[in-house]
Amino acid sequence: MNINAAILWEQGAPLSVEEAELEAPRAGEVMVEVKAAGVCHSDLHPARGDWPARTPLVLGHEGAGIVREVGPGVTTLRAGDHVVFCWAPPCGLCPMCMEGRPVLCDRLERTTYRNRLPAGGTRLHARGQDVAHFNGTACFADFAVVAAEGAIPVPADVKFEALATLGCAVITGVGAVLNAARVEAEASVVVIGAGGVGLNVVQGARLAQAEKIIAVDTRSAPLKLAASFGASEVVEASTDNVVEQVMKLTGGRGADYVFDTVGVPETLTQALRFARKGGAVVLTGLSRTDARASFPLFPFVMQEKRLLGSVYGSGQPALDIPRLVKLYQEGKLKLDELATRTYQLEQVNDALHALASAEGARGIIRW
Ligand SMILES: NC(=O)c1ccc[n+]([C@@H]2O[C@H](COP(=O)([O-])OP(=O)(O)OC[C@H]3O[C@@H](n4cnc5c(N)ncnc54)[C@H](O)[C@@H]3O)[C@@H](O)[C@H]2O)c1
Ligand SMILES: [Zn+2]
Ligand SMILES: [Zn+2]
User: Fold this and answer.
1) Per-residue CA distances from 188 to 19, 109, 197, 205, 215 (Å)
2) Domain ranges for the chain
3) What is the mean pLDDT of residues 304-316?
4) What architecture is domain 2-165+335-366?
5) Buried b / exposed e along 62-88 (16+ C-beta atoms within 10 A)
6) Are 2-165+335-366 and 169-311 equal in CATH topology?
7) What is 169-311's CATH number?
8) Among 121, 191, 181, 141, CA closest to 306
9) Which residue's C-alpha comes closest to atom 10 of ligand 1?
10) Percentages helix, strand, coil for the chain, rounded to the nearest 5?
11) Residue among 39, 262, 267, 281 to mutate when testing ligand 1 (max atoms within 8 A of CB)
12) Whose Cα sits closest to atom 8 in ligand 1?
């Protein structure tokens, strides 16, 4: 069938919203009518060329919609189900899946991270060419064909705008706190970067009942939002005494947990300084694929600091996404407030531009 999709034909060039052909779902796949999609920094990376990617490519990996067609053999979903996209559909059989760590599923290296569907090939075509599915999701389009495990059923009475950011920004930020770091009540937390992921670190820390939640960002709009999401203190990273300010706010010791949601070499260096002796740094931000960090090794050892990477919330997305919806329904998780800007699919380049200039939280594409 013919759909409209936002296609990246060349890295560094704007996306082109144009007609594409989408094939019916194959065995183990579903077709979802996309209703809302969040615009994540991980869309901006391939659009700009920070990460190498083969083009043409339909971007979009965070969103929600309604299942319209199920392929042969799909028993977990039915037409009409409301779903949140999950860009890490696990195989369920590899050693990491067996260990209970599906976000580290071996299959993702051959599928999601190569912009392919698990069943192989592509269902998208445009201008007579095959088009790849970004992160196996490709939801900057009217419809998307994804693996059945890449669509998590959710209650039908939750607004799509609220669900739009759950499948990446929210699960990544909240999961980094609750699953990767396991922040305890009364802990002190610093989060570097208060964008889509960082605001959800703030929310996760609030859920964990952290006592102090210090948000650090280079810009004032995200910091204002961080305060409304539960940050107890905010620090402008552009000021030159940022380390002194964070130290002062943590009684001169540094924080128990530091989350680097930016992930460039400078912020990692800063994060390691912000952590107290015995404290942990959790890195969720993704740099250019060729980035390297360096930090002083001696104090790292002598102060027993810990450095953890965290991908996609380090948990069980198929269970965590419905849990997060429940927290929203109970008024314990802010989702509506994350969508600070809304766009039509045709305005996707404006949405990416606004994200790059960090006007605060998330832009949502709505249908
Ligand atoms: N680990 C994962 O599973 C995962 C999931 C989603 C996104 N990501 C990655 O996380 C990163 C953040 O994504 P996002 O969607 O939250 O981005 P975003 O653009 O919404 O937020 C980034 C924030 O960081 C701030 N910032 C930039 N440079 C800074 C600096 N030097 N110091 C302090 N603050 C700074 C910006 O002002 C902005 O508010 C991206 O690299 C993205 O690719 C990782
Ligand atoms: Zn697996
Ligand atoms: Zn994302």
Assistant:
1) 50, 35, 18, 9, 11
2) 2-165+335-366, 169-311
3) 98
4) Alpha-Beta Complex (3.90)
5) bbbbbbebbbeebeebeeebbbbbbbb
6) no
7) 3.40.50.720
8) 181
9) 285
10) 35, 25, 40
11) 262
12) 285
**Number of other residues whose CB lies within 10 A of the CB of residue 49:** 14
Q: What is the DSSP string of 131-156?
A: EEEGGGT--SBSEEEEEGGGEEEE-T
Q: How far is ligand 3, taken at its centre, from the CA of residue 169, in Å? A: 6
In the block, which residue shows the tokens 């095959």?
A: 130
Tokens 């703030």 belong to which residue? 202
Rounded distance from Cα 119 to ligand 1 centre (Å): 31
Query: Is the model's pLDDT at 359 over the cut of 90?
Result: no
Measured between alpha carbons, how far is 222 from 232 in angstroms, rounded to an integer? 14
CA–CA separation, 170 and 195 (whole Å): 11
Q: At CA 158, angle to CA 71 and CA 198, rounded to 5? A: 95
**Prediction pTM value:** 0.98
List the structure tokens of 16: 């082109």
Residue nearest to atom 21 of ligand 1 (CA): 195
For 46-58, the pLDDT digits (tens) are 999 999 999 999 9
Q: Are strands 124-126 and 129-133 parallel, antiparallel or unpaired?
A: antiparallel
pLDDT tens digit sequence for 65-77 = 999 999 999 999 9
Cα dihedral sign for 259, 264, 268, 271? negative
The kind and range of the H/E element at 260 are strand 255-260
For residue 355, what is the enclosing H or E element?
helix 348-356
Euclidean distance between CA atoms 130 and 133, whole angstroms: 10
Residue of the CA atom closest to atom 33 of ligand 1: 217
Rounded to whole angstroms, the Cα distance separating 304 from 48 reads 38
Q: What is the DSSP letter of 261?
A: S
